[in-house]
Amino acid sequence: MEELLPYYERELSLLQQQAEEFARRHPQVAGRFSASGDLLQDPHVQRLMQSFALLASRVHQRLDDDYPRFTHQWLEQVCPQLLRPYPGCSIACFDNAGCAAQASGAEVLPAGRVLHTNPLHYGVPCSFTTTAPLQLLPLRVAEASFRGAAPGGTALPRQASALLSIRLELLSETAGWDRLGVERIRLFLDGEAPLVNLLRETLSTQVLATLVQAGEHGPWTLQAGAVPLQGGLDDGEALLGVDLRWPASRRLLAEYFVFPEKFNFIELPLPAAARRGGVRTLVLHYALAGPKGGSNEARLLEQVQARHFVPGCTPVVNLFTKEGSAAVAGHGPGRCTVLADAHQAAWHEVFAIDEVAWRAQGEQAPGAPPLLPFAGLRHEAASSGVLYWMARRDTLRASGRPGHEMELSLVNAAMAPVPLQADALALRLRVTNADFASRMPVGHADGDLGCGSGGHWNHIRLLRPPTPSRRFALAQGGLWTLISHLRPNPLWLSGRGLEALKELLRLYDLPRSQDTERLLEGLTAIEHRAAQACVTTPRGPHIVRGTEIRLSVREEHFAGRGLHLFAEVLSRFFDLWAHTNSFTQLRLVSAHSGEVLVACPRREGSVPLL
């Protein structure tokens, strides 16, 4: 209804202005229409004008709604996420201290585990799904510290200026480092945003070498290749799952603005030296290229403690699969309202319709025509009898009747409506709890979530309150702006393309926060030039031509976000500017000194050759 209000106010004001203008021009026949007349003061006339203004506002809005019959169906095929809500997200911590004492190795749970809220803590039943593999390890982070020098007699790389140490302890008597069953230990960086961002950037970009200390008083052994890795960038950690219509180049950009905490995971490779001894304590010393002692960054890293490294964590999203139902809508033949829960419709919102089929006890028959999505590629001939389903999200109805905003209709190949009985359809949906998830209280002593399997599963804490449900801005021309950005423009990489790049980043900033505006103010210039590199393939080395993109930034504007993470996300977005036999390489350059701050690896283009 908020979108309809400005149209209503405009139509009502226009009616009053036209009535006064008509009364001024024709006072003999319409004098009572003037402001001093008594007709406009009549409450019955006022209600009539308000009703007419409401009807006219609906018509005006339909004229300005960017042709949804075409654009929405096209986006459902090309990039459906632009039309869907972005569900609430959080970080779940599995507290398995009681079971860790008996475990001998790691238990790895794949992504997709559904968790439920405790009805005693929150009256609205909300469900969350894990989005990344979860490690349940019989260990704890006992100590973490930052210092500017190593003990005497310890050989460090010449460029090393500081040392970050993490001490790990096994909790089970039967566990051993050689029997954990994992190659990397995944930890969540928890704490204040400035410290966490600096810690993530330091571990993922400034580690020169790893020195392993088996036992608290054992010797330090240099371990080659055991460098920490940045988490959250792989396809297997996508918040909304992998979809070819929502490539990583765009998906990561939306995740970066909507829920940046999903990138606060670090993976520590388990050194081979730790698996050869029978010790229960392992200390990982990371030699750093920076920051130097006495700097602001060094003083901030001196606050690092063991509590900032949390094992057993994974991102979760308020999105789950549910069997839905259809109810008669009364808006025309062949139309029905899609309900995720007929008894608690207001607590749910349909994220997507995955499948529509006939119910076995309804109109199902051996010769019943299949039901296919109209926004698809499987369009049969009109004579084949195939029926199609079309879905439409009514934003006006969503504000008045939450949970009833999704409308489903059956049509034939000519888009003519087909009558149906609502109870004849079986629906498989992906559902969210809308903004109810963001209102749930967190931090209960016995856990916030559980999955009903008993044991440590029912002691799951949320380290962050779930984020509110977000949406892409589609009104007032926003839909066509999003469509125009689906195909990259080479002019965006030129000097005048900086404003276009900022506009694109604002589109993906669904929270529309002031921090993002400060970040965008830190982008000062963009340019590109031809580049070439020697690439080794199974057929041998050869020279490949590509594009080097140089983005000038004011580094102080990224203090709360992290410059390297922004570069990694944006570098993947620029994949869209190169073909598969070419590459792009992003470099972030200081606007003050011209120094290269971040040089991203070369990335192969993602545009296929036709």
From TrEMBL:
Highest taxon, organism lineage: Bacteria
Native source species: Azohydromonas caseinilytica
PANTHER family: CYTOPLASMIC PROTEIN-RELATED-RELATED, TYPE VI SECRETION SYSTEM COMPONENT TSSF1
Xref: Pfam families: T6SS_TssF
The protein, known as: Type VI secretion system baseplate subunit TssF
